[in-house]
Amino acid sequence: MRPSSAPTVDDAPGRAAVSAGDCGLLLIRLTFGLLMAAHGAQKLFGIFGGDGLTATGKGFAALGYRPGNVYAAIGGGSELLGGIGLALGLLTPLAAAAVIGVMINAMATVTGAHGLWDTQGGVEYSVCITVTALAIAAIGPGKLAVDRIFPWGKGGWAEAAVALFLGGIGAAIVLLIL
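Above: the chain's sequence. Below: its structure in token form.
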């Protein structure tokens, strides 16, 4: 392997290097966050093949969430805003908490009774979403994120705990008032 004489990002004075890990984390955040946001937009606006708020509200009401439209708006809004926050790396622990809370509710009211595997309607998919959101809060959004300038932009135990605690509390409140 011959040495390269071309300057790299590492050689730039006063600039922090962007690692492959930062780019990989950006790819995860963008894919995961934008898909979550689109899933919320399906519920709220009926785009991307979704049913929209009225039909989604009827589905929520059938699950015991009354008034259904209010809970559909909360769930869809949490997915939309949480997804956008994760994609941008903006308020990452709160964005993760929004997604975690919705997924806990999904597991408690829809998928939990069907076992683990998604092929039988189980929790597999919801668990993957929850763990991914929690992991992003724990790892931090990386250098290619809006949060990089804030104290919580590095991730850590506290950020993961905040995401899990707020998501869990939000889910518990919703489940208790059903």
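The CA atoms of residues 101 and 168 lie 6 Å apart.
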